[in-house]
Amino acid sequence: MPCLQQKCLIHLIRDINDDLLKNPFDQELKELATLFGRLIRDIIATVDRVGLRTSYLSKHKPEVKEFIDVLTLKAFESEVAGQYCKRIVKYQSKLFTFLEHDGVPWNNNNAEHAVKYFAKYRRLTNGRVTESGLKNYLVLLSVYQTCRYREIRFLDFLLSKARDIERFVEMTEGIKTRRCMHQEPSPHSLPRMGQPSSEEAGDRGLTTIGEHQGEPRWISDNGLEHRSGKRVN
Q: Whole-structure pTM over 0.70, yes or no?
């Protein structure tokens, strides 16, 4: 398919670890695994700190180039290490795509989680589905996953009858902005007219606690309540 791709680095790491267990005395494979592991640890540390943002991940491009150059120039005698060398050099443009584009994951965990929903659906239906029903389900599943990763409420998107998620996001953000601009101040933030402040009430030994049938209610120094508006001694 003519588009940019990102191969799952976790699968590559898993394969190297498996072969290290099978070939514990292969020094060239250990050397390759050490170089690759150091490179990936530095990159993932940046991802964990700032996320999948090219402005920060691009600093690792020289390290990747140096690693690829080492593999290109080195002649491995180990058959296993040589195979990994060819594999990494061949797919170098697809192994580190996430360094050049924002939001591209370095593994396929998202895809594997998305497939779990379909696997669950297949178990529930026991394989008894029609072609048209399956197509409709896959379309809804695709929309649901897109909304989930874009942090959009799936039901809100369906009820909006929108056909473009990007336009839906722009529309909802515009509505939120207009609401914030025209939001009226909360009644709790407005000063109460005609009521003494806490300092004034403290000076008089009285505290206003509200109104009842048009008459002010007071609490006197001895804790007695009355509505006459006169001070109780």
A: no
